[in-house]
Amino acid sequence: MIDPNQKPDPAVNPSDVCYRAFELIKLKQFEDAEKLLLGMMSRTQDSAADALYHSVLGVLYKVRGDPKTAWRHYTRAEKLLPKDPALKIISARFLIEQFAEYDQAIKKAKKVLEILPNNPVFTHQAYITMGLAHCLKGEKKKAAAMLEKSWGNDFEGFVTSKNIDFTLVEMLLKRDWGEDACFRFMNKALTFAKGRKEESFTDSFQKMLNAFEQE
Asked: Is-contact 113 126, C-beta < 8 A?
């Protein structure tokens, strides 16, 4: 049983607090989740912990259907940790989904490439994010180009197939754009999953590829 009124342990890991808050959000105990996070924020002087709490509050308000308040929390989190690539990806996706601020989202994603140019998972997410923005702007060729860049050297450096994001593939296929790039993306994802011996992902990717080939 999660008790949001429990006095926080000063030695508690902020990640554990966020995990508890996410559990409350899943249970739709929104007020309890907010109380827990605000309580911890009032007791911390750690900017990294504060940023984590703001990012979860952003999720909370997004789920509650209040994008403006969610955005304020995401913005606060990013200001506290301006070089955190995960926060930049989160805020870029939010700009795309909630406010149709595509150019601003692209700028944020490019910052990720500057911060961690050699991290394959974050560069993957950055290119996928830019591709989504270009796609929604109606820029077919640029969107497909971002998809091609997103797999890097055939997903080399990825730990698991779970890190492969198919969001842009799905968006492109709905528009009948970039079929060749989408086909190669799926093939490379399948090859990677097989190499990692991840059977569930291998089966899932194979089904996607089969469905694509039948169309």
From this structure: yes
Tokens read off for 116: 């961690």
**Which candidate, 182, 189, 128, places its Cα nearest to that of 154?**
189
Identify the CATH class of 1-81. Answer: mainly alpha
- Residue 93 burial by Cβ neighbours in a 10 Å radius (0-12, 13-18, 19+): buried
Q: Confirm or reject CATH 2.170.270.10 for domain 83-215, answering yes or no.
A: no
Q: What residues does CATH 1.25.40.10 cover in the chain?
A: 83-215
Whole-angstrom distance, CA of residue 201 vs CA of residue 20: 28
Q: Are 100 and 136 in contact (CB under 8 A)?
A: yes
Contact 32, 4 (CB under 8 A): yes
Query: What is the rounded radius of gyration, in angstroms, for the C-alpha atoms of the chain?
Result: 19
| Contact status, residue 93 vs residue 67, Cβ threshold 8 Å | no
Mean pLDDT by 10 residues, the chain (215 residues): 48 87 96 95 90 96 96 96 95 96 97 96 98 98 98 97 98 96 97 97 96 83
Q: Report which residue type is found at 125.
A: Q
Taking the C-alpha atoms of residue 134 and residue 123, their distance in angstroms, rounded to an integer, is 16
3-state secondary structure of 166: coil
Neighbours of 96 (CB within 10 A): 22
